[in-house]
Amino acid sequence: MAREFQRGHKAKISDLTAGTDLYVGVQITGPGMTFDISCFGLDDKEQLSDDRYFIFFNQPKSPEESLQLLGAQSGDTESFRVTLDRIPASIKKLSFTATIDGNGQMSQIAPGYLRVVAGGEEVARYSFSGAEFSTERAIMVADIYLKDVWRFAAVGQGFDGGLDALLRNFGGEVAEEEPAAPEQAAAPGFAPPGGVPGFAPPPGGPAPAPAPAPAPAFGAPAPAPAPAPVPQPAATPPPLPAPAFGAPPGQGGDPAIHQAPTMVAPMTAPPGQAPPGQPPFGQVPPPGAPPAAPGFGGQPPFGQVPGQAPGQFPGQPGAPGAGYGQPPVPAQGAGLAAAMQKYRETPTGQRWTQQNPKMMRADLGQGGGQPVLARQGSMVLYQGKVDFGYKGAGFTGRIVGNATGQEMQLMRCTGGGQVFFAENAAYLHPIELQGDAICVSAENVLAFDESLQHEVRRIEGHGIPGGALFTMQFQGTGTVVVKTHGTPVVLPVTPTTYADSNAIVAWSAASQVIISSQVRLRRTAYPGHSGETVNLQFRGAPGNFIVVQPYEV
């Protein structure tokens, strides 16, 4: 029986199936609407660093065929084959998306789904409908991502813009359409498409069948009274003046066009020399040569000052302060946009997103709309509809918190917007729990999903004031955001692992903790003493860990 997923829910693929050859089917429809359903193969930075792993209608498979577009079948609008054990190590996430091709918005779609089938059996299904969206034109439906093991996540995140905007969001490049060639005034009305007359004979030969060679994209035929012959390829082009386009050297074209002087440019170069600023036809400019200015032969258009953009005059806005012979000054808008680019918000469609090492964003619309609990005063920005309320610990909770030092003043964030958290420029680390548990000092907790269970845990000890230490234990499925002073270090637990109780941040709940007290009357009199009053010794099976920060509370 297929496991039903809600938006924001995640699971290990190994918990769903033991197979690695998966079928992913997407069903999405809408009145009078067509959809482009794609798969983005992203790297560890969630960017499309290799365009070959953008699987869509025009590129149906990856190089090693680990990702394949199968088309519509079995009631699915589109389907994919994903072979996990063949995906290269550079690909860390597969994002399945649907975009509208044409008019419409996602609020108009009928109920749809994304399903995962393995071994002929459906193992996962995520259902969605137009009621979950508004004016979006794209949906990031679901992810299959690698985090120690392959996992499945139901995303259901709307996205403004079509397939091009989604491609740019993932760092891909959209192929721009080539500009249309200028109007071919000299071509007769009966000339076939392609830019050169099909009846132009080669030099010295009879008129052959129409030539299918298309016109080059870099120019169009020069005005001429009659169609010009097609040039024949030559091993070494003769160093003659550039002939009229479409005519062999010395034949056809109107020589007056290329020999008449202009008001700004010098005369056409004498025979045997290339026009100024332009190498002979078919030759590569020498290294270090300045680029040719726009216009035939490297000359600027009539009346244009060299070095300026077409249609621009000295002092015109867009080149402030640029006079004749001076390099143009870049526009302030372009420079400002480029400078701010690296600070822009990181859109991922995930429940928790790290904007930078010291700021975290929580999308309350993800994860089934469950609330987030955060330290009071840690909100620095929010977008959309968000309600903030006081989260009390109750009478017993306050007593326990005061007695153990593990009291947390929390606020409850609900709604469908996005909340940004930070505190005193501390480093933030999201820790995702999948049914496991972790122990964290309350001082180091910034925010966490309300679905997580949390309680005060006592660490027994002898020879220390109070006879015990305390910490918070978080358990369940969700994310807890831990803050540290500086960049922490994560170490595996061994029988000889000790940590200062004031520097320890967190450890795996399965670890055994033993308190090592070094209280002495004159500890400076004992050589080799570390100077720490209380140390914690950790023991446990392989796989357990501790997190220590370079700071003592």
TrEMBL record:
<dbReference type="InterPro" id="IPR051324">
    <property type="entry name" value="Stress/Tellurium_Resist"/>
</dbReference>
<feature type="compositionally biased region" description="Pro residues">
    <location>
        <begin position="268"/>
        <end position="293"/>
    </location>
</feature>
<dbReference type="Pfam" id="PF01987">
    <property type="entry name" value="AIM24"/>
</dbReference>
<feature type="compositionally biased region" description="Pro residues">
    <location>
        <begin position="222"/>
        <end position="242"/>
    </location>
</feature>
<feature type="compositionally biased region" description="Pro residues">
    <location>
        <begin position="190"/>
        <end position="215"/>
    </location>
</feature>
<dbReference type="InterPro" id="IPR003325">
    <property type="entry name" value="TerD"/>
</dbReference>
<dbReference type="InterPro" id="IPR002838">
    <property type="entry name" value="AIM24"/>
</dbReference>
<feature type="region of interest" description="Disordered">
    <location>
        <begin position="176"/>
        <end position="301"/>
    </location>
</feature>
<dbReference type="InterPro" id="IPR036983">
    <property type="entry name" value="AIM24_sf"/>
</dbReference>
<dbReference type="InterPro" id="IPR016031">
    <property type="entry name" value="Trp_RNA-bd_attenuator-like_dom"/>
</dbReference>
<feature type="compositionally biased region" description="Low complexity">
    <location>
        <begin position="243"/>
        <end position="267"/>
    </location>
</feature>
<feature type="domain" description="TerD">
    <location>
        <begin position="1"/>
        <end position="170"/>
    </location>
</feature>
<protein>
    <submittedName>
        <fullName>Stress response protein SCP2</fullName>
    </submittedName>
</protein>
<dbReference type="Pfam" id="PF02342">
    <property type="entry name" value="TerD"/>
</dbReference>
